[in-house]
């Protein structure tokens, strides 16, 4: 009994000694104090995936806002002068229907493969690595060129609201004077758009929704005024220039509808059933076609032919004419500025997601696939696009016109490869799940491919929209830069 008590005392003493070592921190065992994780540690556990934050309305506003830029205020006069009021309407209706076939290819593919990068994903699966790189890189050129153009269009549009904005003369390029105030305004816009996109697609979509709603409101103002107070005799001449006049309008239509394809770029961030995603793409093109046709009709009813031919801000002048006040014209110019913002914002989204997807597949440096630890956005890709657009204000409009034409050529090449991918997957993978399956798919695919090949021919030498020497040099330089990136990353593995 006494020995048992002593043994118990020894066990108890050993327990006290162990507890004392823990409390004093001596020995190998230490009591670790409870420490709150740092902000960086908390953010680092966020899954490295894009956040699904966009709904149906957000996706529609993203695409519609991308299509409706500054041209609906500025170019309705030239369109109606070249083809006549009804001829311009017919040109946009026919061009819009042609683009529907391309949109249907996108709709089926986006519903089947709702991943970031859109065209890149489809062409990679259907055609392989090199054709996919050509498709993606060509469309990146188009997106970046549009975003860059907006950095010049933004201060130019504001100058109509605030005369005297051209302060601090720097130099002249191509007959266009570059002023420090214009450059600073364009740079400020680029920084703000990049900041909004880095902070998250949800914030960018909220801005897009509000500004797009304002554009629609401005369009309704001029349309209602023209229907109530316009004159049908102003529509004369209904047609102008014959086939050449109609062709002059048809040439620009695909460029006006560029933007519906931003939805597939952000498909991984849209929380919609896959079939609904395809429907939204088609609806966005129909909405864009209806808006452009409505603006052409409003201008035709509001202004006689000679006024339309001489006006600069034609749609703004039409609004001022039917409502009898400068406020109506100013409102439409503000609508044009809003169109610049929505196009700018949407194409930064599209370009950054394409770069992100290409980097994920090892076609570009891996840094472009990095996501922001807090906002889960491809911030390196966004900032890269932003820095490229910051170069544009220093060169002015002439150089940017070369860039936008070269970019338009790139987008048409991308569209053609998407149509080809659609046909290849219909043939090679007929059983692939397609939540939005296009009826008469083979006929739709061949029609879309034919439309795209016809558009490509329009850019060739000797055609109506032939690229200039400077524009071909831009295309070749971009292709060379892309090929160097492609060759440098070729040994890397691609995702299955």
Explained architecture:
- There is one protein chain.
- The chain is an all-alpha fold and 496 residues long.
- It has one domain (53-489): Amino acid/polyamine transporter I, CATH 1.20.1740.10.
- It has 20 helices and two strands.
- Strands 1-2 form a two-stranded antiparallel ribbon.
- α3 (56-67) packs across α16, α7 runs antiparallel to α8 (129-161) and α8 (129-161) packs across α9 (180-198).
- It is globular.
- It starts with a helix and ends in a 7-residue tail after the last helix.
**Mean of all residue-level pLDDT scores:** 84
Helix content: over 70%
Using the coordinates shown, work out and report the CATH topology.
Amino acid/polyamine transporter I
Q: What's the alpha carbon Rg, rounded to whole Å?
A: 28 Å
Please state the structural category.
Answer: mainly alpha
Strand content: under 5%
Q: Do you know the CATH architecture? A: Up-down Bundle
- N-end to C-end Cα span: 74 Å
Largest sheet: 2 strands, antiparallel
Within the largest sheet, what's the order of strands? 1-2
The stretches of 5 or more residues where confidence is low (pLDDT under 50) are: 1-47, 492-496
**CATH uppermost class:** Mainly Alpha
Q: What's the CATH H-level homologous superfamily?
A: Amino acid/polyamine transporter I
Return the string of H and E elements.
HHHHHHHHEEHHHHHHHHHHHH
DSSP summary, beta strand count? 2
Q: What is the overall number of helices? A: 20
The shape is globular
Overall number of structural domains? 1
